[in-house]
Automatic annotation (TrEMBL):
The chain crosses the membrane at residues 44-71, 92-112, 124-144, 165-190, 196-217. This is DUF624 domain-containing protein. Keywords: Membrane, Transmembrane, Transmembrane helix. It holds the Pfam family DUF624.
Length: 226
């Protein structure tokens, strides 16, 4: 029978204790495979946490707190950690979300105004606004993970997030593009992507952002504190 079926009672080769720790894509794939079912549950939990709409900010903060623990490879109880992070960090997470909404609305109005102009002014102003918008979104990728993992004032969190978004611009931009691509595809092919939105989109974007952000936080912020 072993000719046709695997012998699951036989011990595998295992991992050598002298093997170097995984990094980069290998580490990402290892954690993602291990936490895949948890990410599905987290996505559903996040959607529930966004009801009513006013709680979107705290729900993002709670979801990020869970995904940061994942990339730190810390043991986690999904429901307990989500609820605790929601209650503990709701004020900071809500203020971050409120600030982000106000900033993006103002940026959108400025872009709409620039569209009414013509010529060189339109091209330059539009390009600057788009760049500012992308940079702001990249900064947000660091703000939530940092607020979930380090006890700092909101001013220092924003300052450090700005610095990390510049220092890690290559990885940050790739992460931003991947998240935007997933969100755009989920919207573009709606309603066919309803299962993807319900079970995957939000938690995967959070996991991807937390993985990118934690690498910079660990390398620059934590070391500087030590």
């Amino acid at each position: 029978m072993r000719l046709f079926f695997f012998d699951y009672n036989k011990e595998g080769a295992g991992v050598s204790k002298d093997a170097p720790p995984k990094e980069g894509i290998a580490l990402f794939g290892d954690i993602f495979a291990r936490e895949f079912t948890t990410l599905i549950k987290l996505n559903l939990l996040f959607i529930v946490g966004c009801i009513p709409i006013i709680t979107i900010g705290p729900a993002i903060g709670a979801m990020t707190s869970v995904t940061v623990k994942m990339v730190q490879d810390k043991p986690s109880d999904l429901l307990y950690d989500f609820k605790e992070a929601f209650k503990k960090n709701w004020k900071t997470a809500f203020l971050i979300w409120l600030f982000a909404i106000i900033f993006m609305v103002l940026l959108g109005k400025l872009l709409a105004f620039c569209i009414t102009t013509e010529g060189v002014t339109y091209n330059i102003a539009t390009s600057i606004i788009i760049i500012i918008g992308i940079l702001f979104c990249i900064i947000l990728m660091y703000i939530y993970p940092m607020s979930a993992s380090i006890n700092l004032s909101l001013r220092m969190i924003i300052k450090n997030s700005l610095l990390l978004s510049i220092l890690y611009i290559k990885y940050s931009f790739i992460t931003f593009i991947l998240c935007i691509a997933l969100i755009e595809a989920s919207i573009l092919f709606f309603p066919f992507t309803i299962p993807v939105i319900l079970f995957f989109t939000f938690s995967f974007c959070s996991f991807l952002s937390s993985f990118c952000a934690w690498s910079g936080i660990k390398k620059y912020i934590l070391k500087s504190e030590e």
